[in-house]
């Protein structure tokens, strides 16, 4: 319904699906927002990556989402990496970011640079289930060279953003330096 009502086909909108997670390997998926909120309050669910990477989903504004009944806009912030529904002709993920690190952050930054509106859906949600660490996150955590390469790719991406979007892209460089 939201895709039609918000005219996703004819507008530059990125519909944000609020993300949650559980530490349990078995979970009865909540059938309603009310049930999900109850599970949050009981500590069965958490906002996604709350314990390790709050910045990634904080702009979703989960406190507002709890009581929202209509879609609401949020602004881009550094390291924002929500799960989104977008038109198929939106910018593609940057191919530099394969494996672990910065693929969603760079994509959301590009959407913001192209003036996409970030709209949080009040009755949609997803739940991340626990799983073994991926090969790539293991490499990121254990290999200094991997982290150095990722830092180099981030800097290259930001320079490309500056060249492509000019003055408007300065906020991405400033945000990165402050995070």
TrEMBL record:
<keyword id="KW-0325">Glycoprotein</keyword>
<dbReference type="Pfam" id="PF13896">
    <property type="entry name" value="Glyco_transf_49"/>
</dbReference>
<dbReference type="GO" id="GO:0015020">
    <property type="term" value="F:glucuronosyltransferase activity"/>
</dbReference>
<dbReference type="GO" id="GO:0035269">
    <property type="term" value="P:protein O-linked glycosylation via mannose"/>
</dbReference>
<keyword id="KW-0812">Transmembrane</keyword>
<keyword id="KW-0472">Membrane</keyword>
<keyword id="KW-0735">Signal-anchor</keyword>
<protein>
    <recommendedName>
        <fullName>LARG1 glucuronyltransferase</fullName>
    </recommendedName>
</protein>
<dbReference type="GO" id="GO:0016020">
    <property type="term" value="C:membrane"/>
</dbReference>
<dbReference type="InterPro" id="IPR051292">
    <property type="entry name" value="Xyl/GlcA_transferase"/>
</dbReference>
<keyword id="KW-1133">Transmembrane helix</keyword>
<dbReference type="GO" id="GO:0005794">
    <property type="term" value="C:Golgi apparatus"/>
</dbReference>
<dbReference type="GO" id="GO:0042285">
    <property type="term" value="F:xylosyltransferase activity"/>
</dbReference>
